[in-house]
Amino acid sequence: MRSRLLLCSVTAGLGLSTVATPTRADQFHYNNVLVGTRAMGMGGAFAGIADDASGLYYNPGGLAFALSNDIQGSANAFYGKNTVYKKALGSTDFSEESSGSLTPFFGGLQKLDRYVEGLVAAFGVYYTDGDLKDQDTPIDRFQIGTTVIDRYHRTSNARAATYFAGAGLGYRVLNNLGIGFGLSYFNADELVQEFQYAKQSLRIKLSDGSTVDGWSILASNIRQHLAVYGMQPTLGVQVALPSGFTAGLTVKKIFVATQSLETASDISKTLVSDTQNNAATVSGPALTIASPIQNTVTKQVTESKNPVGDMPLEARVGVAWFASSSFVWSLDLSYHDGVTDADVKTDPNSVRAAYAKEAVVNLATGVEWYVTPTFPVRFGIFTNNDARPDVKKGTADAASGQTCSQSLDYYKKYCAQPDHVDYYGGSLFIAWVQPNSQIAAGITLQSGNGKAQKLGDDAVQEVKSNQYTFAFSATHNM
Amino acid sequence: MAGMLRFFCLVVTATILMPIGSRSARAAHVEAKKDGVEVYADATNKSQVLTTLKSGEAVVATERKGMFWAIKTADGKDGYVSVLVVKHKPDSDGTIANAIKAASKEGRPEGDGSDARARSAVMGVRGLAEDDNMANASNVRPNLRAVYRMEDKPVADRKIDELGQSVLKEIAGKASAPTPAPGK
Amino acid sequence: MMILDSHVRRRRNMLICTASLMAAAACTMKTHGTDSAEKAAEQSMTPEQRAIFEDYRMEVEVGRNMAGRLLGYYGVVEDPKLVGYVNQIGSYVASYGDYPERRYMFAVLKHESVNAFACPGGYILVTMGALRNANSEAELAAVLGHEVAHVGKRHMYDALKKMKQKDIDEASAKKRAAIDKDPYLKMRQRPETDSASAAGSRLATYLTGKAGVGLSIMAAAAAGMQMITEKGLDKDLEYEADQEGVKYAIRAGYEPRAMMAFLKRLEDHSAKKVKNLEKTHPPMKERRDQLAKVLLSLKAEDIIGADGQERFKKVKAIFPVPEAG
Asked: Considering only CA atoms, which of A376, A353, A355 is closest in space to residue A312?
């Protein structure tokens, strides 16, 4: 009994379930965005500045203060991410790595003073996150408790991107006040394909009392595709204060138009007896299996029409100080509200549980310093907190029936919780500025600590994650 | 410093170059085209003839006066020769031309000029809206290729001589033609 | 502000001296120069001579930059016959000038305004509009002579060198006037890359490997552009260029009254073009008065000059079609 349960829980916990956990990219992290040649060097603290094409994202009110028409784009960004779940598999750490390249941003700004004094238009196409994962984890012979797994092999391929395309207008209402509005089309797309294979050798005790050596083999193939489409209106305001200060406020929210999550999975559980005494390594405990030996194959195709639910509202407040023509400092505080969902409470396997988000507050601050008129250095630090709830540690009590498998209540509270990793990050960029153009290159680093429950039970692993991104960007003024 | 340098220069100049002459703005020479070129006391062939020049004889010429060159004879006298009977020889000893040429060739980047040097010359001003002001000429990227093409097309001496001869021929033609009524 | 002859002569003597030393070491050997020969020549220079040579190099750099901007902005006429003709006339007139040892290079700009630009280093640009306004080769020669005089006497370059940094900053500040008027935009401006900051200069030197290059040339070129397109030189310098240029053309054998005719025709045809020209040049009437004085001193009424009509008509036939606007 116990062994079987263990076997199930092991295999289930190793990610084998009908729901592949959503791509850990950063639907749940809001502050790792490489939008804007200047903004990305300043940690993304740009709501008080926002006077170029990237203003559409940070604060359309800032567009009204643009100095000139511009076109900008991040030509390329290369990133790498490494996440370690400590001691997830017995005493072995479980690592996930991903890397890739993406094109975070392309946008343009046009001053329309010729038609309406003080009017500015902007457009932008940007990726707020993207992930390409190619994971291959083969492990031979490891032990969890008293269960010995001969071989475990998981491959996971995922691609995810969150993409906006939109346009906006900024208007200089007063000499020192700009307001702006933007509307963007939104698309989040995640495709995950996972294959898992686990082989456990054991002694099978048949109902007639005889024992036979064999293996239990679990194989699963899961494909999961999440697609969300929506529109995101943005309202922004920016005011110029005395002594070179500015303050900005932006509010935006994604309204989901359609969303769907398609899952297709094939899971097969096979018990094989080693009738030919073929090197079956009998190391596991005896397992009583009803005769005849049964093998099962489950096929499942589901489609959920409301997997994600609502998207959070975002509010961002920023101040900036234009100390001189060669030095700017800026500070942003952003708030995303939480998305709770009734389904979570009633159905523990509800897909929504996987996408539930809590309110998050993030801070970013950055400086731009022109060392020479041609070479500015940009530096920023920021937080990137996780929108998923904290992982709570439960104390299982088999006697009172409070365990993951025995109590739904306990399961919902303490088992199979999503990861929670809070990051701190910094960015450092240098640019080469010419009178009509500039190119910038630099690096953004994030480091995070947190907790996870990768095994689907109530065991909690420490998580350490690091991410680096190299980015290039160019701006041309006209 | 200026005095020292001047002295030094005078010495060097004297040994290397033809005498520049401290009074005239330039050192150009005219060369008699034939024997017996008259040097007049004034800018008119009705004035006294000071001396004559042999064919090929060169004198320093300064300014034009009417149809005459103001010249200095070998013994330092001021006189005038008709422009129609002398050949002009500008004092281009080539050294300055070469100095400037070297300066420009040296500064020219390899290839088509699109290297750091040329890029560092990208000009313009951020933040101006367009208008039809000529001042926008400051705001464009220099077309250095066109500049290099200017540098690479020197006019052959031969062509300059040809033109000079055509011009002189035209003058001679007009001079011998009946004088037209005075115009503007 | 007049440039005194003796001042000119002294500089010129120094320059000839310097250059001749260099020539003695290297120039007679080459037209394009070999690196080692040039290096030898450079090494044989005293600091003063080197300074003068560097000054010429600077002049060429600034002039290139300015000429490049004008060529970039107006566009350049490519027709080799036309350009070759202008070069031929210009070089011919320059050979009768006071500075025949310099290099004078000519290009034709694709613009219908009547104008000509003399950039330091000998880069002379004349517009199609100016060519069209000319009725004869003599008139063209007079216009080119004017520019040749500017170059030979280094009017522009000397003016730039006399400009203090403050003036250069003022010149670039004027360019940003539209934004300077608006305090909330002005505060967002990033530093002007044309201005020569000490650190930037050092960095530019490090990157380009050449001393004194980079930002200070850009600053000078920017100020030069301002002068050439907006402010204009001191009017005394313009008179001098008028008069000297006419002298060169007359010495070269051209009809002495050509410049007068050119200016008069311009005045008669287009008040707008005159207004444009008078932004950077003295008023027409005064120019013609000053010219008349010079012609008198040269006994121009006795001079028979060439028109070059035959050649000019042939070239006129290949003028490109005027661009619209």
From this structure: A355
CA distances for A412 relative to A344, A352, A416, A417, A418, angstroms? 9, 13, 8, 8, 11
Q: What's the rounded Cα separation, in Å, for the pair B104 and C59?
A: 10
Average pLDDT over residues B114-123: 32
| Sign of torsion over alpha carbons C71, C77, C83, C89 | negative
Encode pLDDT of A54-76 as tens digits. Answer: 999 999 999 999 988 888 887 55
Closest C-alpha among A81, A25, A46 to residue A446: A81
Q: Which residues of C touch A373 (CB under 8 A)?
A: 190-193, 195, 197, 200, 215
Residues A289 and A98: their CA atoms lie apart, in Å, by: 41
Q: What local confidence, expressed as pLDDT, does residue A284 receive?
A: 53
The secondary element (H helix, E strand) that includes residue A300 is strand A296-304
Q: Whole-angstrom Cα distance, residue A101 to residue A159?
A: 12
Q: What is the pTM of this model?
A: 0.57
Per-residue model confidence as pLDDT tens digits over B34-69: 898 899 998 888 899 988 888 988 888 888 888 889
Nearest to A68 among B119, B123, B126 (CB): B126
**Cβ pair A435:B126 closer than 8 A:** yes
Whole-number average pLDDT of chain A: 82
Q: Give the gap in angstroms from C-alpha C189 to the nearest C-alpha of chain A.
A: 6
Q: Are strands C105-109 and C123-127 parallel, antiparallel or unpaired?
A: parallel
Q: Is the dihedral of CA A429, A432, A434, A437 positive or negative?
A: negative
Identify all chain C residues contacting A371, using CB atoms and an 8 Å cutoff: 199
Would you call B104 and C64 a contact, using CB atoms and an 8 Å cutoff?
A: yes
A113 touches chain B (CB under 8 A): yes
Residue B24: name the closest of B67, B70, B56, B89 by CA: B70
Does an H or E element contain A129, and which?
Answer: strand A119-144
The stretch A197-226 carries a mean pLDDT of 82
Structure confidence at residue A325 as a pLDDT band (50, 70, 90): confident
SS (H, E, C) chain C: CCCCHHHHHHHHHHHHHHHHHHHHHCHHHCCCCCHHHHHHHHHCCCHHHHHHHHHHHHHHHHHHHHHHHHHHHHCECCCHHHHHHHHHHHHHHHHCCCCCCCCCEEEEECCCCCCEEEECCCEEEEEHHHHHHCCCHHHHHHHHHHHHHHHHCCHHHHHHHHCCHHHHHHHHHHHCHHHHCCHHHHCCCCCCCCCCCHHHHHHHHHHHCCCCCCHHHHHHHHHHHHHHHHHCCCHHHHHHHHHHHHHHHHHCCECCCHHHHHHHHHHHHCHHHHHHHHHHCCCHHHHHHHHHHHHHHCCHHHCCCECCHHHHHHHHCCCCCCCCC
Please count the helices (runs of H) and the strands (runs of E) in chain A.
5, 18
> To the nearest whole angstrom, how far is the Cα of C147 from the nearest Cα of chain B?
16
Mind listing the pLDDT tens digit for each residue in B127-159? 222 333 444 565 567 788 899 999 888 899 899
Nearest-5° angle of CA A466, CA A469, CA A475?
A: 155
CB-based contact C122:C151 (threshold 8 Å): yes
* Cβ-defined contact of A374 to C190 (cutoff 8 Å): no
The length of chain C in residues reads 325
Helices (H), A14-113: 55-58
Residues of C in contact with B70 (CB under 8 A): none
Whether the Cβ atoms of residue A199 and residue A149 lie closer than 8 Å to each other: yes
C100: Cβ contacts below 8 Å, ≥ 6 apart: B26, B28, B90, B91, B92, C94
Query: A455 and A20 in contact (C-beta within 8 Å)?
Result: no
Note whether B128 contacts C179, CB cutoff 8 Å: yes
Taking contacts as CB-CB distances below 8 angstroms, the residues of chain A near C187 are 240, 244, 322
